[in-house]
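Why does residue order matter? Because the sequence determines the fold. Keep that principle in mind as you read this record.
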Amino acid sequence: MPETLARAEGEPARTVRPNRFVNGSAEHVEPFYDSGEVSPGAELSNIEVAANGYLSGILVQVDVTSTGNSADVVADEDGPFNALSSVRLADINGGNIFGPVNGYDWYNAVKYGGFAAYNDARNHPSYAQTAESTAGTAGTQSFLMRIPVQINPRDAFGSLPNMNAASTFKLYFSVAQLSAMFATPPNGTVTVRVRASIETWLVPQAVDGSGVPNATTPPGLGTYQRFVKNTFPITAGSNTLRLPNVSNMIRSIMFTFRDGSGDRDSTNFPDSVELRIDGYARDQIRKAEIRHRTHERYGYQVADLDAGTYVWDWTHELDGKPGFETRELWLPTNSATRLELVGNFDGGGSLDVVTNDVVVAGGDYRQAG
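Structure:
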């Protein structure tokens, strides 16, 4: 709301509008965790997230180091992200904000969530995966990805208070077994190192240098997003899957079909699917059209689109690209909403469904700060 500021004696007061939160704050990055070299299968639990400002994300770097190998190493199709079999971020009360999901699901959440200008971790400078070979270091690989907390970087919407060092967010990582990281693993020594840094908005001063008040909290304070995974068994033929993660606003849903051996599979994914809401076909679309739509919105080329993965987003209304949205396209659901995916699968397997939903604290969630 506009506020009245006193001027010099004898001059009339003037009415000014307070600075937006992002104008009074500043972005901040700070490292807080290093696992050191751990063995495959290690559990990295109850990691306290550093307390500072309003949490917007956590940057996580994972390095897999292989030495002394003489085997003919073959990478896994979900590598290197499957170096982590589980990733989870919990709030101060223990409730899940992100996950638990595996490393590949995390990769998709970042790739399709629209939280930065460039989101495919395979195209980031930190990404590395050595060629399949019998070299001594075959199997060495790295990546760096964000665990997203804030929903919109334009106004810090969804950033969460993170100022109490006695009551912190917690991180949990499960390092995968060596046999799960690779189709054919190295036979030497393999270690994994996980490092993390917080991304925060600093708490603004009450007024700026000109005496103009600052908004000291992000808009929609208490609103938060989640990434929740469900997996459904699929039989060959017609399947109607009722998606259980309803009751909130939905930003996106990511589907990954895997065949009976666990490999991602586009061939047996339905040629045409329906996304139904309360019996109404919100989308009746061919899988080729889903891929075409993904290219149009995200700009990903054929080589960037993984087999078996198909995405619905409701975040592209600002400029045609997902993310930084005005929140006008979000899909509203309630506890009684019947949200279903219907399609005829040519073969059996399983369907992983990761839903990005938003728990709104109140007020007009569409209003920018």
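The mean pLDDT is 94.
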